[in-house]
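User: I'm curious whether this sequence folds into something compact or stays loose and floppy. Could you predict its structure so I can see for myself?
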Amino acid sequence: MLTYFLIGALIGALTGVPIGPVNVAVIDTAYRHTLRRAIAVGFGGAIGDGLYAMLGILGMGPFLEDHPGVPPILYAASGLVLLVYGVLTARSKPLATVTEVTERASEPSAQMWSGFVLGFSLIILNPAAIVTWVVIVGSSMPEVSQTEGIAATIGVSCGSFVWFALVAYLANHGKKVLGGKAVWITRIVGLLLIAYALFSLGRAIYIWFF
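Assistant: Here's the prediction. I'll summarize afterward.
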């Protein structure tokens, strides 16, 4: 079980490296709100990753193979959601200092909950992640028992969370170092997210017509 947990943790961390909606949300939240809330966003995303990884482990692969029309629909839906979020992120403006001070003094549990919901929702609203996890699980863990699968899923969530927490810390540190210029961080990652969304839409079109 420990081996599958470690494999899952490694996969969870590595799959978090490419720019994606949760990475963007963590950076944006760390810059415009607080580190505590940014970490909560990462935790929500990590739980979502674990759930989708579990779907892959439990055998979504055969279903997708039997229904070839499903993956392009998932890619298209994800592309549209990520495109909207990327545009909103690229156009975001820094919050007023008084807003940040007020938020720091607000109820910590409210900050944590709102951040968790955001991170979890961004994964759930990215259904193409199911396809990604089916491919990853299918290639790295083709045949696992239920217990091994659960261990791997927990590992995926842990690995994802460690990565997102690191991103939150670095973004928060960058905000302090760069000051007002840090707004370009969220604008750049927003543009990268738009590019990723267009890639997902292009993949859907390619599968449909070619």
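Summary: Residues 2-68+95-179 form one domain. The CA atoms of residues 87 and 190 lie 6 Å apart.
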